[in-house]
Design brief:
The protein folds into two domains: 62 residues, no CATH class; 60 residues, no CATH class. Helix content is 76%, strand content 0%. The chain is built from seven helices and no strands. The longest helix is centred in the middle third of the chain and has 31 residues. It is globular.
Length: 141
């Protein structure tokens, strides 16, 4: 793992320790985009998945009830954002790649879904969001 990714992991851990989940999410997103390749991204996610979750759980005993509910709501917002990004990524892979779309099977394996789940996971709203983000219309069928 490159030094930049290791530094990002330390920054994420500091943000989690202070309860600044928004900062932690921002650092994760930046580190993920800055990762050199798919292997480095996977290594980052494998490290962060179990390790990022431990800190907030270990600190729950000292959290006030309203702060706990706030953290829970923040986690739900993060999950919703990730779900949206997955749907948009699937839409991109099926509707925007050239010269042909990724196969349902390839996307399903990467997203840990079934091929039929990939087919129905994204909507026209997700396609529109991708079109706006990439600045072009979906591939002609």
């Amino acid at each position: 793992m490159r030094t930049e990714i290791k530094d990002a992991i330390r920054e994420i851990q500091k943000a989690l320790e202070t309860g600044d989940f928004c900062l932690a999410i921002g650092i994760v997103r930046h580190a993920y985009r800055a990762a050199a390749d798919t292997d480095e991204r996977a290594e980052l996610l494998l490290y962060l998945g179990p390790n990022a979750a431990r800190e907030p759980l270990a600190a729950m005993e000292s959290v006030a009830p309203e702060e706990f509910l706030g953290r829970l709501a923040a986690l739900r917002a993060m999950r919703d954002q990730l779900d949206r990004e997955i749907r948009e990524s699937l839409a991109y892979g099926r509707e925007f790649t050239q010269p042909r779309p990724y196969t349902l099977t390839a996307l399903a394996e990467a997203a840990r879904m079934t091929p039929s789940g990939v087919r129905t996971a994204y909507t026209s709203a997700d396609i529109d969001a991708v079109a706006q983000a990439v600045g072009r219309a979906p591939r002609a069928r």
